[in-house]
Amino acid sequence: MSENQAATLYIVATPIGNLSDISQRAIDTLKEVDVIAAEDTRHSGTLLQHYSISTPMISVHEHNEQQRSEVLLARLQQGESVALISDAGTPLISDPGYRLVSLVREHDIRVVPIPGSCALISALSASGLPSDRFSFEGFLSSKQGARQQTLEALVNDSRTLIFYESPRRLQASLTDMVAVFGKDRTACLAREVTKLHETITTKPLADLLEWVSSDSNQQRGECVLLVEGIKEQVTSDEIEINHMLTILLKELPVKKAAAVTASLLDVSKNTAYDMALKLKQ
Ligand code: SAM
User: Is residue 59 classed exposed, middle or buried when 0-12, 13-18 and 19+ CB atoms within 10 A define those classes?
Assistant: First the structure.
């Protein structure tokens, strides 16, 4: 039975390279909605043809999103269902759609995500870099000054940093990253993910720059750059607290061990408790 409902905006993820990377639910939705709002209707035509989807399309791109959002809102208000797709991956992720989704939600119309491919998540999942906390920074500026400023603001961030980058600017961005983050920070270049020439390589930044500079093939296709965050410094106070907690936790429950540590080392109970919890995990 179809789960599609009238007056609903579906945000449908499409493949980032490999045409098979689309869910059955996405295909069914694209077949059943009244209209597909696509970033580039010619580009999306190939995907729709491949899956025998004949739903009419309307273009929604960076330059007409405001006006098209009004048109689509009116159609939704009349009870039609709409699917938003972009050229690749998840709409709104460095792609159009934010204005449409916020407008539609302001009018209390249902917005339903149909999840699937996303270049940054695919790259992160295979990079070998910490994935518990990360920050997606989108595209860096094409201007060196602005790019360096952005990187400098991130230099003390301990999360894994993720950037989309054009292959033409890859070398320049890596050069700036070496200058700002240092040559030893671990980084990953995820290129042509899910495609024939997929290459996912993790090395210290300076080695990655050297490799990319010496092999022009690495400067082709689509790419994601990931940089490990700064390693959090452990202070000598923290070493002492951890040492005491480690001993006490062998005999006492977390709360009691934290309270004793806090009183003996004159630190806050909350700090000692959080550190005790981490040690227990
Ligand atoms: N909405 C898309 C998503 O969900 O990932 C991203 C769209 S953004 C306009 C396009 C950028 O995403 C490319 O310049 C590249 O940085 C990255 N990208 C898209 N497909 C990729 C792929 N197959 N391999 C590596 N990076 C990719």
Answer: middle
